[in-house]
Design a protein that fits this description.
Layout lengths: L5 H5 L4 E4 L8 H4 L6 E3 L11 E7 L9 H10 L5 E6 L8 H10 L2 E8 L3 H4 L3 E7 L24 H71 L1
Parallel strand pairs: 1-2, 1-3, 3-4
Antiparallel strand pairs: 4-6, 5-6
Length: 228
């Protein structure tokens, strides 16, 4: 999905509130109307159910904001208010637990996580669509492209049982992958150190060879002088 396709996915929107250094970094990417767009100011105005909080979270301080910076805006959302968060981490390295902690603390439910196209252009790997709720909202798949509806029928017990079961099994399955990833990172680090050591050794040998070639050239010159 493209970034400018995200805002229609949110549903009925009256105001887009951006949390960033200048408050306008995402407006063109989202193609949001200027009259409905404003920067977030703590306690700077009451948000209604048509408000969408947006921000670009990621690992680079000069381009992204952190989760703690967005948290106050999430807590100010009323029930029915939504948030559209762009994430600058590659999916395998996504520290989703940090984001989830703040969302849960603000009473927000993750409705959908959408992978994004053209990452090399804007640096956003995926987007999280979340909403402030007072009961569990209907579940959505990551490919759903219909606008969000929060007032639908709540999931029954079977859906909740499936969610909790999937979480437990996914956590079980992801543990070996995380362990392999950590082992691979250690091996890569060791290989990098070995490569740097070999590069130093090659540089030292090159210097030795250069000195030997210089002595050989002088010896040849001396021989040529003697023959002359």
């Amino acid at each position: 999905m493209l970034i400018h396709e995200l805002l229609p996915l949110v549903g009925d929107v009256t105001t887009v509130v951006e949390v960033s250094e200048n408050g306008e970094a995402l407006r063109e990417l989202l193609r949001a109307p200027a009259e409905a767009y404003r920067a977030y100011v703590p306690d700077g105005g009451k948000m209604d159910a048509g408000t969408v909080v947006t921000a670009f979270l990621g690992p680079e301080p000069e381009a992204h904001v952190d989760v703690e910076t967005v948290a106050p805006a999430l807590r100010e959302l009323p029930v029915g208010g939504r948030a559209l968060l762009l994430l600058g981490w590659p999916v395998p390295a996504l520290p989703y637990h940090r984001l989830l902690d703040e969302l849960v603390a603000a009473g927000c439910q993750v409705l959908q996580v959408v992978p994004l196209d053209k990452v090399s252009r804007h640096g956003a790997h995926c987007a999280v669509l979340t909403a402030r709720v007072d009961r569990l909202a209907p579940l959505r798949t990551h490919l759903t492209d219909t606008p969000v509806v929060l007032d639908g029928e709540s999931p029954d017990l079977r859906a909740l049982l499936r969610l909790t079961g999937e979480f437990v099994f996914q956590d079980l399955l992801s543990r070996p992958l995380r362990s392999k990833l950590a082992d691979a990172a250690d091996r890569i680090k060791a290989q990098d150190q070995r490569i740097r050591q070999l590069e130093k050794e090659v540089a030292a040998r090159d210097a030795t060879i250069a000195k030997a070639e210089s002595r050989l050239a002088r010896a040849r010159n001396d021989i040529a002088d003697l023959r002359a």
